[in-house]
Amino acid sequence: MLLEPPATTDLCDANEARLDDGSLRVLSPLLRCWGGRTAFAGPAATVRCFEDNTLVRSRLETPGEGRVLVVDGGASLRYALLGGNLAVLAERNGWAGVLVNGCVRDTVEIDACAIGVRALAAMPRRSRKLGGGSIDVPVDFGGIAVAPGQWIYADADGVLVSDLPLH
User: Fold this and answer.
1) pLDDT over 60 at 146, yes or no
2) How far is residue 159's CA from residue 167's CA, in Å, rounded to a whole number?
3) Which residue, 27, 31, 85, 95, is the most exposed by fewest CB within 10 angstroms?
4) Are 62 and 151 in contact (CB under 8 A)?
5) Average pLDDT, the chain
6) Are 32 and 118 spatial neighbours (Cβ–Cβ below 8 Å)?
7) CATH number for the domain whose boundaries are 8-161
8) Which positions ≥6 away from 77 have C-beta within 8 Å?
9) What stretches of 76-157 adopt beta strand conformation (E)?
10) Taking the domains of the chain in order of start, what are their residue ranges?
11) Comparing 160 with 132, which gets the higher pLDDT?
12) Are 161 and 27 contacting, i.e. CB atoms less than 8 angstroms apart?
């Protein structure tokens, strides 16, 4: 069972020195919230892909172990990289959440899953299936670098990326 993470506001207040030195970063407030968990946290696993969710599916098919999948979709708004079927897969395999620098679809189905999802927008068009991309690499999420193993904290107030666990 996933525990309720600390509030991002409290983490920012308690870690101002880390915010100043860059070891704690705040994602730009551009993401919309979906999924049955408003607040979630966990170590990052990463996928870099563009308009192709083949690697997103392959990662979500593995045990999540409370991690957060961070998907750098290049901020494309033309195709969805996560939908209802993949959200169910993420929930079943123990992922805490998914951050998508791109779009999602099947938002009603995503909202029924006990995971947290943040993305730029909803888009009904499914992704292409070309098999391109990379896993477990540093990714860019709106100008913030995210590396595998860094900690993600998300709630209704925002999303934090920390070099170290803060709880």
Assistant:
1) yes
2) 15
3) 85
4) no
5) 96
6) yes
7) 3.50.30.40
8) 102, 103, 120, 121, 123
9) 80-82, 97-104, 116-122, 134-135, 139-141, 144-146, 151-155
10) 8-161
11) 160
12) yes
